Amino acid sequence: MKLAGSNKILIIRLSSFGDVLLLTPLIRSIKKKYPKIKIDFIVREDYKDLVKNNPHLNKVYPYADSHFERHSLINSLIAEDYDLILDLQNNFRSKEITRVLKCPNLKFRKKNFEKYLLVKFKINRLKHLPPVPVRYAEVLENFELDDEGLELISMNKPDERFQPGKIYIGLCPGSQHFTKRWPEEYYISLGKLFEQKGFNVVLFGGFDDMVLCKKIADKLNSPLNLNNEDNLLQTAADMKMCKLIYCNDSGLMHLATAVKIPVVAFFGSTVKEFGFFPYKSKSIVLENESLKCRPCTHIGRKSCPKKHFKCLKEITPESAFSNLKNLIQMV
Q1: C-alpha 255: how far from its chain's center?
Q2: End-to-end CA distance of the chain
Q3: Of the chain's two ends, which shows fewer C-beta atoms within 10 Å, N or C?
């Protein structure tokens, strides 16, 4: 099915943080090729700020879990009379919407069986799979993305504690899952190395990262701890003040690339084949490619199933610091 001839389309991607940002190249590319098409978007309330200022969207509908709010949302959508739905969530919540609207729809293929084979049996049928933004675009026939990467627009002003003339290096030590988090003590050691070389360390994180960021900040000399209660637009504005950012495989990694800041990313239990490496950005990915147990999951785990956690523990702070020069040369 093609977009040509459509006047209004609906895109559904309810969550999560990174997935919503990885969808922005498709939104922008559709609008570039078909400027008259109106694009509406449904996303969970928690993530609406990621597309709040997106200039290519006509309307953004927040999705909530309560039955009353969902019923109200669906009634609003029925009145819009869409020509096409792109269901890029493809779960029971999004299917509830597409079933009621009864218009043509295209669904994102998640490749769950292929992920299972890779995680459980190390049978790799994902080797030649493109990154997730490209896979989103593949739901449309013969449609190609532009070359501009992820997109996020923040109108917020950077924190007033940033000082002109200083070089800031960002650290994003959090991640939802343990097996995606480079060790806390390694971030402390890396921060100390930066301070010894005259750089200024900035800590970023959301509500769930407050304790972690404080522990790291308390071990450093004079970091800026800009951890906040999930104010994504403020975090984006503050990230723009950094020369580069070190991060885990997390939503903040994608946020940094969306505001065009180079990243050094630590990948532990997950691998490139899942499609979530930094997309079209100046980046270096650090991973332990010698381990036969990787990947042990496609989303993350509470603990290392082998008990050694070598995937991230063998990436030392010294090796991470040595990549600083390589990444700055890309800037």
Answers
A1: 6
A2: 40
A3: C
pLDDT in tens, 1-16: 578 889 999 999 999 9
What residues contact 211, with CB distance under 8 A and at least 6 apart? none
Whether 13 maps to a domain, the answer reads: yes
d(CA 125, CA 114): 6
What CA–CA distance (Å, rounded) separates 35 from 201?
42
User: Which residue among 137, 160, 179 closes a domain?
Assistant: 137
Question: pLDDT by residue (tens digit) across 68-88?
Answer: 899 899 999 999 999 999 999
Q: Is the Cβ–Cβ distance between 142 and 263 less than 8 Å?
A: no
d(CA 172, CA 248): 7
Rounded to two decimals, what is the model's pTM?
Answer: 0.96
What CATH number did the domain enclosing 124 receive?
Answer: 3.40.50.2000
CA distance 281 to 131: 13
Both tokens of residue 186?
A: 């390694």
